[in-house]
Amino acid sequence: MLVFPTITISEKTPFKRGESYGSQASPLVSMCIDTYKTRFARAGLKWEIAQEVAMRYLKWAEENENMPDMVEEIKGIAAGAGRDIMDIAAINCAYELLHFPNECTAFALKREATLEGHVILGQNWDQDPTFGAHAVLLDILEKETGNHIFGLSEAGQLIKSGICIHKDDSATAVCGNSILSNLDKVGIGCPTSVLRRKTLTFGRMENILNLITGSARSVSSNINVATTENEICAIELLPEVVDRENSLLVDPYYIIEPMSGAVTHDNSIKSVPQVDMYRHGHPRGTHLKILFSEATGRIDLDYIKRCLSDHEGYPGSICSHGCDENDNWQTIASVIYDLDARTAHICCGAPCTNDYIEFTL
Questions:
Q1: Is the pLDDT of residue 86 over 80?
Q2: What does the alpha-carbon distance between residue 25 and residue 19 come to, in Å, rounded to a whole number?
Q3: Are 159 and 107 in contact (CB under 8 A)?
């Protein structure tokens, strides 16, 4: 059975948590850095330039987004792994620097949509399969807050998706996928990995939306969020672009509300399709929404797993693998977070051929 390694962290300060993470995952962090060096070079971006730009992003997050704790955690990762902070900054800003065009199918379900009345969030993570070699599971206890976070990450990054059980026993889950718009540009903003990790520390949807929609960004992204308030949504984030009169050309964010108790997303921009640059593949998010709508009120864990294993529209399907040498994006992990059961179901590899492992928080 394929299994991602688990990094267990229990410390009182962000720096110490990062240090513990970095020291435990040091070989995988180095592998992650080497993978991104190759990917940056393939994109024509020198590593030194990537490092420099990434440090600007971290400085922005620390000084303008009120996230010094997240930056401290990144500094701790560097110290624990014995790497330069600029290396860790670069891999945590990889989304902004490379802006992958076709990554992930995400969803969230309200209680009325599920058989057991649970709030559930999850996704298939699609990437070049080489990225799966340095993926890890993070099991983090923030001793000073009582937050218990569990999720999937690339080694050295803060988090990709996850669930957080808060001190008051409420829960938040976050995942996301890439979107590509003609508004995207080189600039400064809050790194996606930092924003997702910070989002997990908030328990109320109102506060989460204020955090996410209030963040600055230079490239587009989508974040799916669920809370035990039985609130779910997908948030499409676009760079702020103004005309000569300083008027917004499009709104910088759009909140996609659930229909029939479900919200789904792939890589296409739903809110402002005229700026969408993703013109490839089967509409996976729409197909997943149809599958959920056919079982509203009866959706259970087994049904979700079957949906995430669906091959309609292959190779651009929800579960994608075995692509040709010119398009090697594949489903390399599948995650399901049950906020009410306090469980995470993680599949290493394509869910149609590999088993999910259950973790209880």
A1: yes
A2: 10
A3: no
